[in-house]
Amino acid sequence: MLNQQDNNYKFDVKMTCSGCSGAVTRVLQRLQDQDEGVTSYEVNLEKQEVLVKGSIDYETLLEKIKKTGKEVGETTPNCERTLTNISLRFGLERC
């Protein structure tokens, strides 16, 4: 794997039960186990939010999450950079 800088991604994923969040978790765990560019991740069923840190490119990661059959809403390719700009303007927390 290429040694690239880690990115922070945020995905809004429609998950209605632990089975839904489990499907997304399994995909991300597989990517992490196979050293495919996922450093860490958090799947939050309550917030219906998936946070991923890694060198994996945005389009590949989006495709992998969509393959679980879950609806992926608005996504942020690099939430740290984007939310930093928003935070400065509106006083919001960074991810």
Characterization of the model:
The protein has 95 residues and is an alpha+beta fold. Helices cover 39% and strands 26% of the residues. It contains three helices and four strands, in the order E-H-E-E-H-E-H. A four-stranded antiparallel beta sheet has the order 2-3-1-4. The longest helix has 16 residues.
Q: Average the pLDDT over all residues and give the rounded result.
A: 82
Kindly provide the radius of gyration, computed on alpha-carbon positions and rounded to a whole number of angstroms. 13 Å
Please trace the helix and strand order, writing H or E for each element: EHEEHEH
Oligomer: single chain
Distance between the termini: 26 Å
Shape: globular
**Class per helix and strand makeup:** alpha+beta
Helix content, binned percent? 25-40%
The strands making up the biggest β-sheet line up spatially as 2-3-1-4
Uncertain residue segments: 81-95
Query: How many β-strand runs?
Result: 4
Strand content: 25-35%
Helix tally equals: 3
Query: Largest sheet at a glance?
Result: 4 strands, antiparallel
Topology:
Elements: E1 7-13, H1 18-33, E2 38-44, E3 49-54, H2 58-66, E4 72-76, H3 79-90
Antiparallel strand pairs: 1-3, 1-4, 2-3
Outline of this structure?
With 95 residues, this protein is of the alpha+beta class. The chain is built from three helices and four strands; from the N terminus they run βαββαβα.
